[in-house]
Amino acid sequence: GEIRSSENSYFCQAARQLACVPSSQLCVKLASGGDPTYAFNIRFTGEEVHGTSGSFRHFLWQVCKELQSSSLSLLLLCPSSAVNKNKGKYILTPSPITYAEEQLFHFFGQLLGIAIRADVPLPLDLLPSFWKTLVGEPLDPDVDLQEADILTYNYVKKFENINDETELEALCAEIASQHLATESPDCPNKPCCKFTYLTMTGEEVELCPRGRHIPVGWENKDVYATAIRSLRMRELQTPECMTAVRAGLGSIIPLQLLTTLTPLEMELRTCGLPYINLEFLKAHTMYQVGLMETDQHIEFFWSALEMFTQEELCKFIKFACNQERIPFTCPCKDGGPDTAHVPPYPMKIAPPDGAAGT
């Protein structure tokens, strides 16, 4: 049942339908103002939708919702989310992948490239470690572990900062009370930890050959802490998944370009900002003939938006153009009134339809 529902998702339907299309056909020209050129057309069966822009944007929005839900297993909520750190941030699911999953990761990479070319930001909330690995930057074993899994980071630090064997025993006793340790084979009443740990997906694995039979002692506690840290770093890098994502991305935009971008620049280029800057939006709004920014109803309009929460502003952007985020890339850094509207595409405010009224 779960497989059937995921197969019917927008993401999997599109992956199946585009699998036989050469990637060169998806490499449309880069967005440069006005409406972008889309890599493919979306038709919602049974729905009357005019034009291609709204459908394409809605499709990308829907796909991002699916990726960050339980209907697809490609992304995993980072463990730190459980304790309100980096809440709602995702990482690639760190587990061995099937051929079918590899194809889906490849398509995920293609979607990242398609979004960059069309300059339609994807509402994805991924940890910085994802963007670092994507552009080929090494992960920081302290900072990135803390961001992704604060509980494991604190656990490792406890073992690294122990000063004597008494403290080690006390720590093992504390862990035993949380059902993470077993009794020492030498002293049956003395709790001890073994060279095993839980993966991010909740499976217990051995940190070294025959790890289930090796107790953690004063001599090897540092080896134990290092092994846990290495396990998490491997899980954050997810080489098999990331190779497939990069291959998909590389079929749409040249991977050499990634070497010129920082992880943050890559994230902003792909996903835009997760909040709406009203001043930026004002600077990129066009008023059609007969309307001026000083008109009373236009002033009321902006006053109303200023009272919106960020969540409401995102809903307004979704209502206006079928995407929750506005593109971040903009050649007019100062955002002045005389600068070119390329990209992001300006918001257009038109006069009311029909005859003039009150």
UniProtKB/TrEMBL annotation:
GO terms for biological process: glucose homeostasis. The keyword Transferase applies. GO terms for molecular function: ligase activity; ubiquitin-protein transferase activity. SUPFAM superfamilies: Hect, E3 ligase catalytic domain. Keywords: Ligase, Transferase, Ubl conjugation pathway. Residues 42-328 form the HECT domain. The keyword Nuclease does not apply. This is HECD4 ligase. It comes from Anhinga rufa. The gene is Hectd4_0.
